[in-house]
Amino acid sequence: MNLRRRLLGWRCGAGLLLLAVVAWAAIHQLTQPLWDEPEIVLKMGGTYDDLRRSSSAPFSPEIRGHVWFGIPKVDAKLRFVDPQFGFTTPAARFFTVDFDDNVIFGIRMSPQIEPLLIDDALKVVLDLQDQWREKGWVAKGLQNNPTIVDTPEWRAYLRKGILAGITYWQADEKYQVMLVVGRFEDYRNPTEERYLITLALAKPWTPFDEVEDMYDEPRHFPAPQPK
């Protein structure tokens, strides 16, 4: 009798476990399309509520009445919304959105999940520059910070690890972006050359048209100039 009760109890427990697994699988199947490509969708001057409504990635709680920054709760790509100047990035692990009260005024992120090999890092950088160029962004500060290209000279410059490659782009008087790629010591891959990309986006903060000719002293480690 005891054995029979145990068998019955085991079957009930197994049945409940199977039901739970099936239910979890069904829920996962229904929600998975939403999470294949988690993204943060935002526009400059938009609100926290707009971001939460438009994005498929969960976001940190709002802090009203302060200048603050929020972060996605999962790795997420950026879809920057603008009728002319919009662009997208690969998924990012470091990703912050700056708010003044609940209004978006800036973005700082690293459009990658982990430090990248130089081939992969340059692929990300060149894709972003191509998007900006095609959408009408204009490279700025070229005298000291030329656009980054995949050449032996640029690879050698970045491998030194002394200075990072920096490029600035501007969209009329609406936005300015700074893109940086530099060598990074990755403790998980100590024998490999890894690189970190940083992207900062806000309203224009450097008046290049006014200051570009003020600094004409040569750098000790100048970035490769276009041929």
From TrEMBL:
UniProt superkingdom: Bacteria
Descriptive protein name: Uncharacterized protein
Organism encoding this protein: Pseudomonas frederiksbergensis
